[in-house]
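Standup notes
- DV: blocked on the single-chain target, sequence here:
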Amino acid sequence: MIQRILVAAGCDKDSMRGQRSYLRAVRAVGALGAVACAAEEAEAEAYAQAFDALLLPGGADLPASYFGQEPHPACSYDDPARDLSDRLLMQAFRAAGKRILGICRGCQVANVYLGGTLHQHLPDAFDPVLWHSGNITGRHPATILEGTLLASLLGAGATAVNSSHHQAIDKPGEGLTIAARASDGVIEAVEGKDVLLLQWHPEQMGETMLPVFEWLCGKR
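- DV (later): unblocked, structure below
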């Protein structure tokens, strides 16, 4: 049976069109991907019944008020409709017992909605800090921790990941444990029951990251 993966997006046309790389990654492992947003709880619940898993993709910063902090001047918040949609979809898919993959902003969103917090601007929290907000085609060193789900997918130990963010997880949310860190200590991945959250962009890293999407589709 072909798995059906919902890729979350904002409710505007530009956001909908911006999710193509995620759809390509889902299709590369033999699944069917579709892009949608949810404006209300009933709509999100309907999506959770119609689809097999949820992918929360990258995007803009999350409002600091969501995790009890004052906004940092380096942050920008501009999509309350997407914030609502992501929260409703995540709640609905978790209630349905279905898998969730969060990537970059999606990683941060899921962590916050599970009660965690974020570093709003990494240069203020880490010294020295890797250039995490660099070109997405670049790479920086990270370590995947032994005994984790992520290690079972990609292997434990040293790796290299891409980066396009200036925020990252500070305190993991409820039920989440750290699965990978960058060499400067920044949390690069956390995981929990039916949840895998990556700060990097696996959809831009080719075949080496396809096991992540195979997991999302129930093939691992």
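- Follow-up: The longest helix spans residues 80-95.
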